[in-house]
Structures are given as C-alpha cells and as structure tokens.
C-alpha cells in the first residue's frame, strides 16, 4: 500500500468501529470478506483502477474543482465546480444509488460500495475540494528538506508524521490510528462534537450531503492549506510550524470521514434490506401462494 492510502485505510478501519452489526454482516457478504479488514482492504481500490484502461473514466470522480480564490474566498458551487462528466459530489451520490440497486449484480454493487468508501475519504481532504493548481498538485514545496507537491503533503506526509511514520506495516499503523481515533470519538476530545458531524447527513438528499462535506473541507484551504495564498507557499518548508497547524485538521477530517462513513454505510444496508422486504411483500401480494 502506498503511503497515500494511509488516510483511506484509517477511515475505513474507523468506520468499522461504528457500523451496526447488521451493516457489518451486510458489507462483509457484499465484499466477500468476513474479516475485520473488510472495509480497509477495499479502501484504496478506487485509486488503483483509475489508471487502468477500463477505469480511467473514474479519475475525475475523486475531486471537485472549486473555482474560488483562496485565501480571500473559499467556497464550492455545484453548478460552477462540478464538471459535466462528474465530480466527487455527484459520484458519491451515483455510487450510493448503485449500491442500493437490486437490479444490479452483486459484483456491480460490490464495486459501488468500494467507490462509496473511497469517495467519502476523498471529499474530506481539503485539496480534493479545490481547483488551484490542480488541487495543489502544481505547487511545489519542501517537506523536511525534500521537494514534494502540496497535494502529496496533504494526502500523505502530514498524516504519516502525525502517527510517527507509516512506511513499515502501513495497515497496522492505519488500524492503530483508527483505534485511537475511535476512543477519542467515543469518550475523548471528539465525544462532544460527534453528534454535530452527523447533522449534515441526509439520505434523502445525497448530493446535498456530499456538497456540505465538500464545502466543509474546502473552507480549510483558506484557513490552513493556503493561508497566505498559492504563490507565497511555493518552495516553503512545511514540516515545522505549518505542520503543527495542519495536523489537527487532518486528524479531525479523518475522524469525521470515518464516523460519517459508518453512518452512511448503515443507511445503505438498512435501505437495501428494507427495499428487499418491501419487494418481497409486493411479490406476495401480486402472485400470492
């Protein structure tokens, strides 16, 4: 696993702490994996297939290009910022719907679930909600003396440093981080705010829910990612004071993503099962016994 997957695998492990028992059984069956790693093992799949011939069309689904002007103005507007081919907001809505569609094959719903898990992670990374220099990919900075692009720093470097390095045994490190965050959510520093995190969750307005998450992430571009603007940060060393401010945002966004993912997966599992029962009742009424 590339270090870039650390955040994704952590959010997946974190979600597995909070899903209901029936949701766990539902997705273990759908994903054909009855271990505790059933979500973590598919968390980075969407990144691997975007570079294949058949999966290339999904590349644009990992982000929304907010055409704002940080640090003076941050904001996401769906009509303005979501490309005609799609974006992370509409992709999350589409694959949520596909995960619920009983007309699709189990493998198609399996794929949809993989996308849902991944895109919930993506939408919580501020630079996946930003257009400037291709979400920071075109901004070159220094991280502990080495040159990286800003997107990589926010995807990987900050999280890796936060947990004390993750190049060896990355899944173990992700699980350890998720276990710690789960305790913070249950009884620690996030306990009082976790209910607030779910106020934006509306299964009757999937696009609106995803858009609210994108706007929340995008706001950090003005306050923490590019506080002095995109030109001032070029060539700057980010491993010191910048990291100290950014690390708390990464931790919070990973915690939010995992907790919200659990709630979202619960809704998918509950709705699918309810629809199945409803369909069975309808068939019984229609055909009788």
From TrEMBL:
GO molecular function annotation: endonuclease activity; hydrolase activity, acting on ester bonds; metal ion binding; nucleic acid binding
One GO term of the biological process aspect: DNA catabolic process
Glycoprotein in keyword set: yes
Lineage top rank: taxon: Eukaryota
Coiled-coil segments on the chain, per record: none
Keywords: Disulfide bond, Endonuclease, Glycoprotein, Hydrolase, Metal-binding, Nuclease
InterPro entries referenced in this protein's UniProt entry, alphabetically: PLipase_C/P1_nuclease_dom_sf, S1/P1nuclease
Family: Belongs to the nuclease type I family.
Protein name: Nuclease S1
Organism of origin: Verticillium longisporum
